[in-house]
Each structure stands twice: as C-alpha cells, then as structure tokens.
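G., before I forget:
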Amino acid sequence: MNAAEELKQSFPESVTGVGLQTNKPLAVIKKEDLLMIAGKVKEMGFDNLSVVTGIDYVDHFEVIYNFFSYNNKQNLALKVILERENPAVDSLFSLYKVADWLERETYDLVGIRFSGHPNLVRILLPDGWEGHPLRKDYDMNKEQWVTIGEDGEDIVSTDGSGILRRK
Amino acid sequence: MWTGDGMNAYELIVSILYSIDVYDLLLDAFRSAGMEYALRVIIVLVELAVLFGFVLITVMFLTWMERKVVAMVQSRYGPMVTGPRGLLQPVMDGIKLIGKEDIIPAGADRWIFTLAPFVVFVAALLVFIPLPFGYSLIISDLKVGLLYIIAISAVSPVAILLAGWASNNKYSLMGAMRAVAQDISYTIPLALAAIAVVVFTGSLSTVDIVNAQSGTLFGIIPKWFIFITPLGFILFLIASIAEMGRIPFDFQESEQELVAGFFTEYSGMKFAMFFLAEYAHLFAVSGIVVTLFFGGWTGPVLGNIPVQITSLIYFLIKTYAVIFFAMWLRDTVPRVRIDQLLNLGWKIMVPLALLNLLFAGFVVTAGVI
Amino acid sequence: METEQLLLNMGPVHPSTHGVLRFKLRMDGEIIRDCQVVMGYLHRGTEKLGEMKTYLQFVPYTDRLDYIAAMPNNYAYVKAVEELAGIEVPERAEFIRVLCMELNRVVNHLVFLGSLLLDLGASTPIMYGFREREKALQLFEMLCGARMTFNYIKPGGVREDLPEGFIPKLNEFMKDMEKRVDDYEQLINGNEIFLLRMKNIGVISAEEAVNYGMTGPSLRGSGVKYDIRRLEPYSIYPDLDFKVCSYPEGDSYARYMVRIDEMRESLHILRQVADNMPPGKAATTQRYGIAPETGIPSSVMSYFPRIFTPPPGEVYSRIEAPKGELGFYVVSDGTTKPYRIKIRSPSFCNLVAIPSMIVGLKIPDLIAAFGTIDVVLGDVDR
C-alpha cells in the first residue's frame, strides 16, 4: 500500500481519488482540506516539499505538490483542482518554508492565489506586469516594457515608444 | 661601510656642479643679476622634478610588475603586447585613463569630490621627503623624519573619507568608514613598532636610523633591526600592509563586497590619481620598512663606484624585495573580515607592540647593543 | 548616539552576485538586519517557450538554465520525457550520459571553488580552477562540438557516439585532476584567513535546511546524508561505487568541503565508467510514437525521430544535479508539444534559505555564505 492509499484510508472524505503520476503515488485532495492533509503528510515523514506546479487546463486549474521523505525514501504527490475563476488555495508556508518562493512563483506565472501566504507578490516578473504568462489565455502579442524608475523599482508600461530609440 | 651625516640631495647637486666647475660660474651669473636666491629655487625645483619623475616611473613600473607577478602566480603571461614583454602597458593605461570621460555624479559634492584625489596623491608624494634613497640621496634629513612620515600617512584616510563622503554613494561611504576605522587601529601598532626602533637609535632622523644599522652583529649578520627586534618587524610589516590597504586588508576597496569602495564613482584622471597614489604609497611604505628594518641603503662597498650609486641600488633591491612580498601576499591569501582585522589590531597587535617596546627598552638599558 | 538604518541595494550589477541578482539589505552599520532577494532579471520564460516547441526542440533550452553544468539539465529533461513516453535507452548511451554528467559535476565544482575564493578576495584559485576546466571543456568540445551549451543528450540516447581517442584523453584528464584536487586542498584548506571567513558562517541546521528546501551539496553540508543518485537511483548509478559526502557542521566550510570531496567521488565514478564502457549503440534503434506523416526524415545520426508524441500523462522526474535536485514536471496531452513544463531548479530553491542564514552577519559573510550556496542566475530566473 502506497502513501496515497494510506491517506485515502485515513481521510476518505478529503481524498477524492488516488492514482499514479507515472511512477509516483498521487492523491487528489479537496482544496479546503489541503492544509490539514499536508500537515498529516508532514507527520508521515515527508519532510521535503520538492516542487509546486500550477497547471492551466483551460476549464480548471490544478496545483500539484510533490513531496519526498528523506528517511523513508518515499514519494508522494498531492493534487488539488481549482475552479477557473479566482483560483485560490491554502498556503503551505506554515509547514514548509520553501513554499514561500515556490508559491510566489506559481502565483506569478500561473496566477493562483495562496491564501495565508505572508508575502504573495510577483517574484520573477516585475510588479505591475499584466497577466500570468503560463496561463493558456495569456496574450503573447502584447508587448510590455520594463524600465527602472527614480527609486530603483521596476516600472512596467505597455507603451515602448519612449524607451526604444529605433524608428 | 659609510657612516656619518653625509649630505642631502641639494648639497649633492651643488657639489656635483662644483666638481665640474659650473657652480661658481652659475653663482656668479646669478649674483651679478642680483638673483642669488633664484639659483637655490631652481636647484630645489630640479631636485623635486627628479623625485617626481622617479616616483612616476616607479609607479608605472610597479603597475606593470604587479600584473606580471599576478600572472606568474596564476601561471599565465600577463601583458605581453605593448612593448617588450608588455613594459609599455602602463603608458597605454595612462593614455586610456586620460582619454576617459571625467564623470562627476549628480548628487556629489563637486569641490570635495575633485579635491580628494589630489589630497591623496600629494600625501603619497610628501612621504618621500625624508626617505633616504641612498647615501646623500635624501631631499631633507628632517630631525623628526619618522614622526613626519607617520603624520603624513594619517592624511590619506582623511582624503579617503572626503572622497567617500563626497561621492554620495553608499558603497563609497562604507569603504571610507572602513578605511578610517582600519587606519586608526593600525597607526597605533605601526607607530609603536617604529618607536621601538627609535629606542635603539635615539633619533627620529631616518639618516640616523640607517647609520645605526651599519656594521655587523657578532661579526656575521648585518646589524639590521629585523635581527634585533624581529617581533617589531612583523608587527610593522602587518600594520603597514593594513595601512597600504592591500589584500588581505583591502577593506577600503574590497571589490567583491563594496564594488570599488571609496573610489566607486571615480573615473578618468581622478581614478588614475588614486591609482598612482596607491602605488606611490606602496613604494614609500616599502622604502620605510627597508629603512627601519633592513638597514636602508647600507651594503658592502664595491670598488670605486660612487657610493651614491651603489647605495641607491642596494636600497632599490631591498625595497623591491619588500614590494614583491606584498604583491605575492596579495595573490595568495583571501581577505579577512573587517571586524576580524580590528580585533587583530586592537587585541593582539597593540599589546604585542607594547611588549616589543618593553623589550627594546630593556635591551638598551641593559646595554646589550 | 542616534543612528539610522541604511538601505543598501546589492546588485543587480555587483561583482559577487554571480550575475544579476539583487539583495535588498537593511544595514545597521556593517551588520545586516534584513535581507530581501529580488530576482527575475534573467527571466526568459523558458517554461512558456517549452509549450511552443516540440519535445526535441526544447532540449537546447535546458542548456541555458544552468550554463555552468548543462549536461545534467539535458539529462533531467530527457529523463522526464523518456519516463513519460516509456523509451528504452541502450546501456552504452546511459554510460556516456553518466560520464558527461559526472565530468560536468567536476567542472561545476571547479567553477564553484574559483568563484568562491574570488569572492573572498583571493584572485588566484579561479585561474587554477579555470585551467583544469578548460581541459574538461575541450573534452566536451570533442564530444559534441560545444563547450558549454551541449544539446548532447536527447530522448533515446545521446546525439553521437564517443569520438575516437576520447577515452585516453579522459584518462589523462582524470590522472591530472586527481593530483590537482589534492593541490587545491593543500593550498586552500589550511589557510587561516580562509578558515576564519568560512567556519561558523552562514550556519543552518539539518531540519531547517530540509524545511527551506535546500538540496544537493548545500544540504549535505548540513549533515543530511542524502543523494538522489542513491535514494532514487536512475541510469546506471545503482551499479556504481561512490560515497555520499556529507559534513555535519552546516556552515560555509562544510558546504565547501562537501564539494571538494564530491570532485574526488566524481573522478572515481568517471574512472569506473570509462573502464567499463560497454559496446553497442549510443541511441535507441526503436521508433517511438512517431507523429503522423510529417515528411521530415529522422536524423541520420541517430535513430530517434525529430517529432514524436508521448502518450497523455504527467511525470515529475528529478536527478542529482551538481547544485542540487533538478526536476522537470512534464505534462503531455498526446500532441507533439508538451502541454506544460515546470522546472524545479536547485539554485532557486537553495536561495530561499539565504536571508535566514545571514541576518545578523556582515556583508562579507553574506558573500561567503552566498558563494557556498553556489547558484547560477540562469537557473534561478529561468
């Protein structure tokens, strides 16, 4: 019995499905129970949150958390499914500090809000950037320019005429 | 071995002119015009021009040497293209720096910003006044020569603070603050180690200090102060490297931490001034180390070559040995941290320097030397 | 006395941030009171680009992530695709891949060593490090014509077999390198100033390090004896003999020592691989999931098609890259292009711990601790 099935047994209500992520056990979690399940997962010995992946499936979003246990050499993936409008899920920052940046990155590029995150701002793109690039409906043809303002902060504008000297 | 007071460079020039029967003619000519003082002024100017030219050429050579030593340590060639083995590289660097745009940042204090490099450069030049390059080759044998040198060295941190403050840059300011903290904590062991030498000689005059080191100890080893107070020498060397601001103690610049420290905002000729001052300082401090601990220009007499020339050669050999050591050190060790440096200065070097002073006093009063 | 805290922007253009990283520091004199990391200056949208390229076309983009050690990047991505599509790889190809990756690990640690010491103010070690690195880069050049961005490992194998005379040259390099590692240890480890700067600086405990998501040598420097090559063996690593190097102190010096030891272990692995190189093909001869007739012939050099379609599914695959755990999350929707590629880069996650490591220390300590984390900005910003 793998870790995902164990979870299913202990929390039949919260775990809506189990399966495999190619070769790693995967459990689909109700988004309301993510924080509780993650706490349980941490107790089970999964001390490393490896990656947080946000995927835009056009009609819904998925956030996948990959855990690893250094002691038991086990893998576990948790998946939450979020609605298309205003995707939001609890932050795991209180359990895993690495979630700080991983969630910020997911917010930045996919646009998923993590409630309870202490500092949910963009990390790779400058503040003020329009859109979340890894969404499928991101407008690739819209040009955005970044300049450095008086106080050293980034300024994003959609009008590049004053920036580029080309005619 | 030559001892005795000798002359200074002014008297040397006069005696040379005299020996080729020109001085009297010149003197008569100027006297007939009623401008006897003009001759004196001209001779002094010639003397200073020679010093200035010598320092400039030395500094250029030192920049080349630094790059060659680094290259040797790092198993590469260094500059090879301009001139034989890249010897003309400093000239090209100079041309490049003169040709560069002289940028003054908008927020900078223009006057102080412009003034600071000159103050640094002049202070570095002034150190050479009581430095004996050889027998009679000294601009002025001041009775308080050593005190003068230590006093003048204290000017450059002031100028560095000016530069750092006027640049209106946080890195510059931090570099300048570090320079001042470092200088204050290292001038004290430096002075204390030098005073131990003064205890032996009983004179602050650099010429007297050199003269006191002629002769031998126990008939074999030269009577240099390095052999008499090795501890004093080590303290003085460490303190002077800190004073020069070279790796491992180059906090005022510390490229990897503060970008370029106090001269971050400088460019063109002003930057070149700092650069020249740094190497002039390196040469001067090495010369002082040689004067205090390696017997200055003393050395064996060689046949009938004028003593002024052989002594200059001895002085240069010893000085370049010290300079080579400083360069070698720079390429070998990492930089210590500023608080570690201050700890070393206050908690270890100052007590050791006092101990060394006690030792010197003991040796002198016991009449061992 | 009234004092004021100073806001210092270290970067994005600064000699020792290894690229375009920016630290927003709140300084109390020389002491750091608060540190914020600002990044993204090198963000190229690699993940978005991945959605617009075919599976094979994305391989060169992985080179540009961690350009100091690009071979493991190639491999990590290719491994994910192979797992997704269920591609069998010939044994010889796996040997060559491990050879490349371990050689690249040595290169990475040489650059680490040089740049760390340069950050500490010693200008010489970087020249020594780059002297040896040059020899390794020449080997890579021999192998695939490129020195840093290889595009060498591809699904199904490697792009070309080993060229003639490669193994003897590699043996020569290894013989030289083994002596050099001893040299470095002799020159650096005993240096009092180096020890003063490294010991007890940037300390992070094992639990903290795991919680902050640190991986690789930086985590092993905190005493966690983990290595994905051992815990989740891939390729031919189960058959190889090597030690997992770790030091319990958790300070900068421990992280540095781990890498020195790893260089030795990598050379040990290289020797085993070079001595036991099996004969055979360097790329798979089977054809997998070829896309409907495109008219494009598969490459003459190898047997793998340029365009192929893995079955729908998703995979998270990770390897032990020189800097830590490098993972690729690849989602396939059954077309010729990946639906989503997510890169879990070691540099990005190791950097999370930096603020907690250096608050209360000084700028020189920030540089020492940051140097031992060993990040590449191409890998952080992606």
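Residues 296-302 of chain C have pLDDT under 50 and may be disordered. Residues 51-349 of chain C form a domain with the Cytochrome-c3 Hydrogenase; chain B fold (CATH 1.10.645.10).

More on Monday.
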